[in-house]
Every structure is written in structure tokens, then in C-alpha cells.
Amino acid sequence: MGHVRRMEFDTVILGAGAAGLMCAAHCGGRVLLLDHAGKPGEKIRISGGGRCNFTNTGCEARHFLSANPHFAKSALARYTPWDFVSLVSDHGIAWHEKTLGQLFCDGSARQIVDMLVGLVRQAGAELWLDTSVEGLARSATGFDLRLTREGKAVAVTARRVVVATGGKSIPKMGASGFAYDIARQFGLSVTNTRPALVPFTFPEGRFAPLSGVALPVRARAAAGPAFDEALLFTHRGLSGPSVLQVSSYWREGEAVAFDLLPGQQALPMLRAARAEAGRRGLGRVLSGPLPARLAEAVAAELHLTGNLADLSDAVLGRVAERLHDWQVVPGGTEGYRTAEVTLGGISTEGLSGQTMEAKEIPGLYFIGECVDVTGWLGGYNFQWAWASAMAAARAI
Ligand code: FDA
Fold this sequence. Notes:
28% helix, seven-stranded antiparallel sheet, seven-stranded mixed sheet, binds dihydroflavine-adenine dinucleotide
């Protein structure tokens, strides 16, 4: 047997992503932050199209899905979007609001990663990359960890362990169910998990001819709230912010409803068009308020190819209804390959909402996306990562 180095820390944080970096930057003591990847904060780097939608100024508990909708309230109230904005501004990072309270870097998401890594270093924490966890067990004083660091075995002891290894989305980037495995090992329950904030797919390339068409809609899945955001047709199916939002509420076999003319009145508009230009076809008339390719597809779907003048009020009523309540049943989703987040996770029943510590396992904490708290699209998931990390850091 070769010599195995043994090192002692107060706190070991597993996962140098959004939550792990934030926690390591603020918790104090002798801290080891480790990650199996070769770089920290990779999801931050690719987030928000490279500009990182790092928070949302309107953040409230209602923007999160969880078996316990109250769980996130305490952490979110004690670390607000404006707390993170101060941090960002103090570091000279310029930002702007894009839409709906969503704050983005003017420059690059890398600035957020660099800021957090800088804070981790300033706090005196060790950052070990290319490091994997082979084993984690309780000891008399806390926890024993067996690690492999750059191919070498290292034994580490810690009074506390913070699990911040995220969810299962984007396996290509090293995402795995690691946090859930640890939770189960220590007797915590894990809810069903599924890809969320993910595009819908349809069999037989149903929408491929419309690929590239985009428009503002109001979208709704059976169980969820309505989202007024853009819809985008792709060669695989439907995407865009409205679709990503409703995907978190959608279940297999269910229909998704789109109001293709949100805030408008289709029937009076169609009647007026019939009166003014009755010799036009429906597709041509709809290509005023709708993108032309979609307008023609809707007319074809309704088998209405003649002149508008030939359509009765009843038929126009059906057209209007279809425009305001266009229902489609997705075949599925693109899955974890492209999902922005994992819905569900470690059950909040076993965790303290004040500190994120496991109620039955003193010293073991779970923060960030691995917990059963999943935000809407729009900076909410990062705000949860920051806030849950701060809840743990303050307790540590
Ligand atoms: P995160 O995934 O950030 O970090 C987990 C870390 O643990 C990773 O560094 C990983 O390598 C490491 N790890 C995993 N398993 C391990 C193991 N077994 N051993 C050691 N280390 C391990 N949210 C938002 O609010 N605004 C946005 O703009 C976006 N944009 C966006 C784009 C894309 C493409 C994706 C995929 C996601 C987003 N998100 C987002 C979601 C956001 O990125 C996500 O919710 C947070 O990064 C979650 O933070 P965590 O720290 O919990 O996990």
C-alpha cells in the first residue's frame, strides 16, 4: 500500500459550482472546496447565453417548485437579489436588466466565475479540481472522506460536509446523481427527479417546416401558471422561454396550451378583416398578427383554404378559439441533455430551511440545485444557489 496523505479541514464542500463557490467564499474556517471537473463554475460560464442571468429582482418563493413551497422562503428572505447585486457591483461588474427583472452581465459570465473564485481565494479556502470522492463516512468528530486528487489517493477529515454537486442536467459537463446518492446513504429521501426548463420534442418532425419561427405567446401546462414569453419553433419541436417555463409543470401525455395572440381579440379582428378584405385567404389575413409561415400552417391545420368572405361567424369563432387556445401534446422533452435544471431532488423534509443542515445528521448540509427547490427560468436558480449557500455559510 502506498502512503496516503491525511488532511484536516473544518468544512469540506463538494462541488465548485454556483452554490459551492458562494458557500466557500463566505463560511470561514479551514475550508476545502473540491470538484471533479478541471474548472470551477462551468455552468455559470455557459449560463444565460454566456452573459449569466445571475439573479431576478422580483424573486419570490412563488417562482420556485418544491414539494414544500414554503421551504425556500427563509433563505431567500435572508439573502436577496440586491445582496448579490451589491456583490457584483462592488466587483466592478457591469450589468443590465434584460426583461422581467432578469439581470445579466454586460460583459461575460466569466466575470461572475472570476469574482467567486477570487472571493474563495481571499477567504483562504483550498480549491482542489480534478478531485473525486471515493467514500464519505461519519466519524467520531465529523466525517472521513476518501478522495482521489489528480490520480492520487488523499484522506481528509472534516467537521462538516456541504454537498453542492448540483443536479443531473447536462451529463456531458459531468452532472450526475451524486448528491442524491449521498442523501440516500445518510437516510434522507429524494423526490422523483426529471428534466426541467427543457424544450419539447414531437414525433415525425411535426414542426420542422416552422423551424426558426418565433412569436410572443401565453403558454400554460395543465397544472401550472401561465407564462407570457416567447415561443420558438425548432427542427425538433418547441422551445423558447415560454416552453422552457411550462416544461417544469408538464407531465407525459398532457397537452400544452398556447394563446398565439395574447392580449388581442381574434374574433373582432377576423370579422373586421372579412368585412374589409373578404377575398383574402385566412392564412394571408393571419400573417398580419402572426408570422407568415405559422399563419399558413394554422389555416392548413383548420382546412380553411378559401376566401374569408365564405367563412361564417361560427367558423371564425372556431378559428379565434384555436388562436387563443392552440393545444399540442408533446411527445417528450429533450431530456437532461439540454435541460437547464433538474426538477425535484433531496426532500426538504429532512433539511432545516434556516441552515440547509440535515436534521438527523449534524454537520451535513445540502445546498443549490440538488435540493428539491427548482426555480423558473429567469435567474431564479442562481438566486437559490446563492441564498441556500449563504444560509449554510452563516450557520457554519
Ligand atoms: P452546479 O451545477 O453549478 O455545480 C455543481 C458542481 O459540482 C459542478 O462544478 C460539478 O462539476 C460538480 N460535481 C458534480 N458531481 C460531482 C462529483 N461527483 N464530485 C465532485 N464534483 C461534482 N440559472 C440561472 O439562474 N440563470 C441562468 O442564466 C442559467 N442559465 C443556464 C444555462 C444552462 C445551459 C444550464 C445547464 C443551466 C442554467 N441555469 C441558469 C441553471 C444554473 O446553472 C443551475 O441551477 C446552478 O448552476 C446550480 O448551482 P449548483 O451549485 O447547485 O450546481
